[in-house]
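lol ok so funny story. i was supposed to be doing the assay writeup but got distracted and ended up predicting the structure for this chain instead. priorities right. anyway since i did it might as well share w the group, maybe its usefull for someone
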Amino acid sequence: MVLEAIRYCSGTLSILNQLLLPDVCEFEEIKNVQDGWNAIKAMKVRGAPAIAIVGCLSLAVDLHNRKKFDTPQILGDFIMDKLEYLKTSRPTAVNMAEAAGRLTMIVKELLNNPNTCVNLLRNRIIKEAEDMLKQDVSDNRNIGKYGADHICQNSPDPTSKACVLTHCNTGSLATAGYGTALGVIRALHESAKLRHVYCTETRPYNQGARLTAYELVFEKIPSTLITDSMVSFAMKQKQITAVVVGADRVVANGDTANKIGTYQLAIAAKYHNIPFYVAAPSTSCDFSLAKGEDIIIEERPHSELTSIKGHQIAAPGIGIWNPAFDVTPASLITGGIITEKGVFQPSELKRKLLTDML
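and the output, tada:
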């Protein structure tokens, strides 16, 4: 049995409603772009790769269902408008913007060709969206292999099994399958090189407690849940080999934006001399931004911090600040940035990836 969060087949899309986990496993149908936008905004689907895939597949479903477009230009305008709208659902995660930009370029190229008809344009965009599913799983498996190999090769004792600490959710529920940081953990486990995993609760939204713990139990990976405030003590007491987290955006100098709480993990790892890794596909890299301070940080509703499942836990009237992400400086990413192309130091990431793309 394979854990999946996205189900797609020829014009029909449904997503696992992650707001209901771990209590209820329920899939919800996505019939159009508006449904996709709503699901992403409400965090029924989350994780930078999954956001882009569900957003683009919601457009594919919309194109399947809307049969009448009088001209390629009308269809092209419809596609580009919907892509711009999808970018507003979760602005910090760059994968949706990257996919929107790539698909928009394809639309413009096809519209410049006088031989392009409505069906050709529609089918090309649908295929591009569908291909994202397969490509993401392939990329994640490569991330897992490169990351697992790098951790083992750079361990003080390469013969010993790794003990890894991770944050938020970066597995099958955050991607098309396998995962990024959790993919590295999964690869270690598959090769019998993993001793244990410590996953954080990840307040205030509890993605670690609700989702990562769910995946680890599902996959029968030896693991323990800790609160966010326990990480420094865990690093001191539990012989942590490496910290591996994901990223929603990686900028030109190697700074990364990820779930709030990542920055403090990197600081604690540096103090304890534990390698800190960021695992992300190249689609999460945004080299148009020079440094982490340029990243726009999304702020979430106050209720996520003041209540859990509708139950008030904070004193009424208290002021709230609820940023969804923080930025980890490149200098704290001591292990490297793990991509589907290999593991790179933050300072060399842009040059290596751009050279590979040429």
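The first strand starts at residue 6 and ends at 9. Residues 118-153 form the longest helix (36 residues).
back to the writeup now i swear
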